[in-house]
User: Which sequence fits this backbone?
C-alpha cells in the first residue's frame, strides 16, 4: 500500500512492496503497471499499512482517469473486502 491516497480515502493504491508516497513519481517506486487502485465499499476505509494485504473483489482492466484526482490507472479493484495477509 502506498501513502498516496485521496483526502476522502475514496481508494488506495496497492503495490508489490512498500515504497515512497507516490507509485508514479520516482524511479525507486513501482512501475505504473504494478500499482492497482483499490476502491473500498462505500463508507469503508483502510488506514495506511506496510503489512501485506489480501483484497477481494471485481478486477477492472483498461486505462481510466479518476474524475476526482486526475490519476490514470490501468487496473482497478472494486473491493468487497480487504484483510491482512495470512499464509495458506
Assistant:
Amino acid at each position: 500500500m502506498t501513502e498516496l491516497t485521496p483526502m476522502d480515502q475514496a481508494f488506495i493504491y496497492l503495490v508489490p512492496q512498500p515504497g515512497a508516497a507516490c507509485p508514479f513519481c520516482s524511479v525507486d517506486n513501482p512501475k505504473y503497471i504494478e500499482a492497482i487502485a483499490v476502491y473500498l465499499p462505500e463508507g469503508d476505509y483502510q488506514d495506511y499499512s506496510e503489512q501485506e494485504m489480501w483484497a477481494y473483489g471485481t478486477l477492472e482492466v483498461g486505462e481510466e482517469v479518476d474524475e476526482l484526482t486526475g490519476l490514470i490507472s490501468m487496473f482497478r479493484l472494486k473491493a468487497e473486502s480487504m484483510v491482512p495477509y495470512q499464509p495458506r
Summary: The beta strands are 12-14, 36-39, 53-65, 72-84. The mean pLDDT is 75. The two ends are 21 Å apart (CA to CA).
